[in-house]
Input
Amino acid sequence: MEFRVDRAVLAEAVGWAGRVLPARTPVPVLGGLLLEAAAGRLTVSGFDFETAARIETEAETAVDGQVLVPGRRLLDICRVLPDGPVSCALEGTRFTVEAGGTRFGLSTLPREEYPALPVPPEPYGSVDAGAFATAVAQVAVAAGRDDTLPVLTGVQLCLEGDTMTLSASDRYRYAVRRLGWKPEAAGADGTVEVLLPARRLHDVARSLARCDRVGIALAPGHGGLIGFDGGGMRAVVRLLEGRLPRYGSLFDMAGAAVAEVECGVMAEAVRRVAVVAEANSPVRLDFAAGGSVQLRAGEGDDVAAQRLPAALDGAEEASVAFNPGYLLDALNSFEAPRVRMQLLGTGQRALLTGVAADGSGGAGDASQGTHQHLLMTVRQLL
Output
């Protein structure tokens, strides 16, 4: 095996495939990256049994072949190589990397012990890459991190007609985002629901964001796998079993007071007053019909407060309290300049919806309210 490729191209390929390498593994070969050179192409693959990442790029291939090398070590080498062409070759059981007079030698891993990469599912449709990455980031913040409850660590992806709905919940919050997508396979205009690991999906979507479109692939009956590809990069992710609780009734906010605030200003104020709050202590929001909201946090002599402009409808006043971390996650996930907050009261639900600069969006505007974030308020106020 022998090939020649530009350093930036090699570093990008190794970095993409290396995203799936486990930090620690009892199976040494899973820490390896599989390099395949043939017919003027270099393919780099990584696999940890949950996600397979594969990228293909152009290269000068003098001798075709395959080699399995320690992935993190190769990534470290790529970071320090000088710019310019890189020559790589397999010499017996050693893999050499040479550029600009610098030469590295790497031990290889047993190729025959490396597990077979999963067969990619069939193409199903595609979605705008940037919009998909944004949508995944907006809902992934609400996914749980407790691996003993794997269903709650996932993002549910629902494909129905030409609409994609992404949702995630950790029981204390529930984020939903809708966007358009393009069904392309026969029968793809039906309804499909699958559950993916949130961290994996977020990483894949973010790294494919610079592509024009992201292709989505599904096996018949789902087959336990979903594929994403774009720009010569491909990832196959193993699905989680189960589904999230349905959110329809949770998002019914009949009788709620409705407040509207500047999203960025509110986020900065929450961040500021929460400095004095002890761990898990809430931030209290007191809305008044006069057009303001006061934020308060802390207790005793260690307190902070800030008043902001706010509109309130449906009540003379409303007081609620939130976990400041959850509230910040929700506010920071919105792209809209303003956010509408439907409030049922202490210890109950609050629904946040983005509002465009022209006032569209929010409650009752299905065409614009494509991103919604439900939070539980704290039962006891400060």
Observations:
- Residues 257-376 form a domain with the DNA Polymerase III; Chain A, domain 2 fold (CATH 3.10.150.10).
